[in-house]
Amino acid sequence: MCSATATNAVDPKIIDLLNKDPEGLAHVSLEYFPPRTEQGVKNLHARMERMLTNTKCLYTDMTWGAGGSTAELSLELALHAQKTGHVSNLHLTCTNMEKDGDPIKGVHDALQAAFDGGIRNIVALRGDPQEGENEWTATKGGFTCALDLVKYIRKEFGDDFGVSVAGYPEGHPNRISELTEDEVKSMSESELSRCCTHDGIAYVCKDDDYKKEMDYLKEKVDAGADFIITQMFFDAEVFKIFVEDCRTWGINCPVVPGLMCINAYPGFKKMTKFCKTRVPKALEEKMDSMKDDADAIKKFGVEYGAEVCRTLLDSGVKILHFYTLNLEKVVYGITDELGITSGLTEQSNESDAKIWLLLVVPGLGQVTQLSAVLVKE
Ligand SMILES: Cc1cc2nc3c(=O)[nH]c(=O)nc-3n(C[C@H](O)[C@H](O)[C@H](O)COP(=O)(O)OP(=O)(O)OC[C@H]3O[C@@H](n4cnc5c(N)ncnc54)[C@H](O)[C@@H]3O)c2cc1C
């Protein structure tokens, strides 16, 4: 495993790290979101340092708050990560980035500040609707999608940055639709592999829509994205099919699986419903059977996470990207189980954490205040 050292003035590009040792040991990368309080920031600094030392994570993602809400803090935390030995992967969205009356200036300034601070890796995203809004709308004269942002980065900054983009193995939520009873009965094999049911309602990204998603993903990569990080999934088969589909579409770059840690029952239920995530029947039944036992859920979160990761590693995946939720226990449990690390489970310390009642939606910005998963800062 390798990681940057604290002396790096300028980060390496992640794509070069990914391509360096394709046959080598498995790596992890870790994703965090900006906390809401000063104390939360201090705690996160300490946790990120511990997790870098403990996991030797290849790179570290910092999300860009939904609706641009944490822009300054995201940048600050990503720069702090860069200065303290992480290879920093800064998320950047097109939402609400207007500055001095210019819809693009906010984006440009953020990129310039990241570059000046030694960051060389950007996750180019459209972003989600601002808080309180259901539909995403572009600022007048601003970018309309992540593709615009990828093109802008390449036009203005050339190869200064490594760029990654989001991929959706089950389709983007905007293109996942509710099915009628007749549609449920006539689903294609491919639709069956990614459909889900929440509260008795079946949903799927239909084949025609999935094709549009893949065509568009290819455009993002052709415009200059170096690799793809996926939305969370709980069915390893969905990821494997998605990678095969990428290759069929001529998308030949690395596809990094985004892995959500199962930490608590209410959060899992709300998040999977909100994102219309496929939850395999066996997983659903097991979770329901343990719903009142928080410790058992965490333990199972480790077992299930490790099982998914093992399937991915067996299929040739070389890097596992964890949505940490700013927590360490379950990540350590999984990496210990996989033999990537050892003895971390016993050491993990979340006692500095303050508990917030929030719904964290990874891959959907950072925090939506719908309710209830225990998130500690
Ligand atoms: C790994 C990951 C990290 C994320 N991090 C953050 C974060 O830090 N902050 C945050 O706010 N959100 C984050 N998100 C959430 C993301 O912003 C949302 O999912 C958002 O709704 C879409 O962003 P995108 O970059 O995928 O958008 P886009 O790539 O622009 O796509 C959005 C949808 O529009 C369709 N579309 C757009 N343009 C076209 C076109 N020209 N032709 C056809 N179809 C088109 C796409 O197919 C897709 O369905 C993340 C998501 C992932 C998977």
Automatic annotation (TrEMBL):
Its cofactor is FAD. Keywords: FAD, Flavoprotein, Oxidoreductase. Signal peptide: none annotated. One of its GO terms (biological process) is tetrahydrofolate interconversion. One of its GO terms (molecular function) is methylenetetrahydrofolate reductase [NAD(P)H] activity. GO terms for cellular component: cytosol. Pathway: One-carbon metabolism; tetrahydrofolate interconversion. It is an enzyme of class 1 (oxidoreductase). InterPro entries: FAD-linked_oxidoreductase-like, Fadh2_euk, Mehydrof_redctse-like. The keyword Flavoprotein applies. The keyword Oxidoreductase applies. Belongs to the methylenetetrahydrofolate reductase family. This is Methylenetetrahydrofolate reductase.
